Amino acid sequence: MSALPTDAPVDVDVPRPVAIAHRPQSLLLSFLGALVLDADLPPLPSAILLDLLADLGVAEAAGRATLKRMTQRGLMARGQVGRTAEYHLTPLAEDVLREASARVTSPAPFEHPEDEWTLLSYSVPESRRDLRNRVRARLTWAGFGGLRDGLWIAPGTVDVAAVLGRSDLAEVGELADAFAARVLPGTDVDRLVHRAWDVPAVRQAHACFIDTWSRPPQVPGSLAQLTLLGADWLWLLRTDPGLPAAHLGPDWPAPVSSELYRRVFDAVEPAARAALERGLRATGRIA
Q1: CB 88 within 8 A of CB 44
Q2: For the packed helices 199-214 and 222-239, what is the interaxial angle rounded to 10 degrees?
Q3: How far apart are CA 37 and CA 54, in angstroms?
Q4: From the candidate CATH numbers 3.10.450.10, 3.90.650.10, 1.10.10.10, 3.50.50.60, the one assigned to the domain spanning 1-111+198-287
Q5: Which residues form the Transcriptional repressor PaaX-like N-terminal domain (predicted)?
Q6: Where are the beta strands (DSSP E) in 55-187?
Q7: How do residues 168-189 score in pLDDT, each as one tens digit?
Q8: What is the pTM of this model?
């Protein structure tokens, strides 16, 4: 499923050299993108969501607080049937998840046409720190790394109008200039890549993902396992924008990560979907 682009009201994870500790909202968005988006399911009783989070080590109070925040942020809509609260995706959440799914489900999410780059220049006043943070999160998801203050670069050709096109970033889009670029002779691309991105941290992120999912972690059930896989994958997609492997050495691990994610997802997803349907049947939501 989908990271979700990080301009959405989600938490931005950063590269960690050890197992990743995801926030509850990141876990729920992973689950919703993988199994609920476009699945024509009824609203989900809160118990299903809270039990899933509990299987992943999230206390009930923290789970309920997360559902409340997601509702306040417009990502979930809450209903009531008798004494049972139930939740469904909002149009905003559906848009965010669908947008992210293109990269999440891509067979080669870390690859771009060779020697294609996008340059972006923009300016946001220091006093608008909230806006600066939203822009940086959005650009990071889109694959941009910072060359210097206000100048960003991304591998491949990025649709900047789409990246900055959300209503809460409209004022930035009006002050941004973007260019499709190619490297001129004499440019040290290796140095450029290492200046814009923390390449050792990106490599370590791949190593962490591969180490974790080569021996899938033992969690209670396929629903929790698929959710954790998706959250780890989104973290990796945010960390590696698709750096050009030609400049990173012959053993760059991105292809291994891609193959591993797809293999584990295909193995776990049918059982997870069946488990969700059993849960909905047990609560009377489906026949």
Answers
A1: yes
A2: 160
A3: 22
A4: 1.10.10.10
A5: 23-90
A6: 76-81, 84-89, 117-121, 145-148, 151-155, 177-181
A7: 666 666 678 889 988 888 889 8
A8: 0.86
